[in-house]
Amino acid sequence: MSCTVKAETENLAYHFDKAGISEQVLTNYLKRAVTMSEFLTVNPFCNDGLQSDKSDDIRLIKNIDAKFIGRAIYRWGDEHAFNSPEFLGQAARLIKDVHRNDSEVIFQAAIFENVTHEVDQINIPNWVFIALNMPVEKRNFSYASMLNLKGKYVDHWEKGHSVPDITRYETQLWFTFLAGSYINIGCEALHLGQINLIGMEDAGLKFWVAWCGSIRKYAKKHARRNWVLLDAHSTEGGTLIDDKSLLDFNSYPLRIKEDINSPMQGVLEKGYLDSFYGRSKACETPTGWKCKALPYLVELDNFGVSAKPGIANLSSHYIWGYDEITWFYIQKEDYRKAWLKYANNWIQENDIAGHLQMPVTRIITLDNHIPVFKNFGNNKSSKCPDGMNLEETIKSIWYKQ
User: Fold this and answer.
1) Which of 110, 145, 237, 294 is 20 to 30 A off residue 251, Cα-Cα?
2) pTM to 2 decimals?
3) The total number of structural domains that make up the chain
4) pLDDT tens-digit profile of 249-264?
């Protein structure tokens, strides 16, 4: 192959546009996916305890050649951040900093199944009404108007933290504000969280179909490459309407099974609890190509520590009493590295549609039940003293694929 042909082939490996994304390009991105929770969020503006200096994370992205930066910006409560111009302004600058090294990197924002009274403080921009073909009003968002009329999942997470109902127009307005704001700063992917929980009253997915259609229409005008990738936690193996997927790809927790013969160790197994392996459904994608199983990501999930940390329970989503990422955190360095290699190989051997999303930054919960952010992927250094030296491991896994 000539140098010219090789260069053209490499340029096409991550190309997509308003027509959509091919199966090969999507697969290329998912093979280089990392979780970098709130990479685009900076401490002075949101009080999340996140580091303000992101230079080492930018270096890491370039070093390991990451192409898909998962969960890079989101709110789980603390919606007041949107009233600071620097919340989105700083995120936009960080995206540009990364794109100076590699313009093909995708940043994923997340729209989660949680809303609080703080949305009442935020003015609804005119463009939000326009995107949904609704009359423009001068008012703020209304928390109460996002809640299920029957009281489903109200105060579900804790008092004042509820699951918004997608059948409520106020929820659609809020989600459009979130999606459009993230697209406007350069994000090209949106994770929609527990889509079935938010769709608690959406029989037939009528409201989800309409909302996703409006966001895809918005992306065709405003997104960097005029397309937005949508995914969610698809508990039923997919989010389908007449064999057509609403999502570009699926995502799910790893669902690690305790190895009761090896204390604190874990394995992957098809059919364990609600694990996703082998369950991603055949469908036609939003771009139009058909597949026997929609590609999907699995990642180390975070949801807290049980009342019995260190105790095995094969009927629980906890592994040895911890959520997946906290369990991973408390392992010794050699085991963490070996386990990532094991998990990646196991997924490749057992379900070609699946891809392991590598842990770089994520929330863990220690025994005091206080959640904190930890840098897993970064090499330990003066700029990242809590780094766990996974960079070379991730590179070795990716470059062997």
Assistant:
1) 145
2) 0.94
3) 1
4) 999 999 999 999 999 9
